[in-house]
Protein: Stalk-specific protein B
Organism: Dictyostelium discoideum
Amino acid sequence: MRSILILLSLLLTIAFASASFPYQCGPYSCQFGQVCRIDNGVSNCIPINDCHEVSLSTKVVGTWVDGSRGNKRFTQYDITITNNLNTNIKQIYIATDYTLRLRDHSNNSIWNVNLLPNGILTLPSYQPSINAHASFTFGLIIEGTQPANLNVLSVSF
């Protein structure tokens, strides 16, 4: 009985200590509608509307009907990630959903960005960061004319 009380006290102490320090968030740990913001190793989940450090903009490059693909309509987009900070963005994770209907799963349908198996987009190895007040653009071709839903999951600076 005494050892159970000691164990419970120890677990309660650990729980209290863990709750009083900022926890390390990542691209998978924040709730829907939140962004994991990591500033010099200190991380927290914030509402997506409060994340002014980075912005995504979508521009239509062109739309066409492809007869060789069953007369399907495709649209090419440029997606620009803009760093609004006075410091470099070290890493960014961008969420996608069912609206990212790539023309095919090749480098001809998405470029200048890494598409992970789980559908998350990250910076390519040749672009390890985005400089202060700079932008980085990647492109994609999707089926239809509706742009893909893209949301920042995590940003580290």
Q: What stands out?
A: The chain has one domain: 23-156. Confidence is low (pLDDT under 50) at residues 12-23. The radius of gyration is 20 Å. Residues 83 and 136 are 9 Å apart (CA to CA).
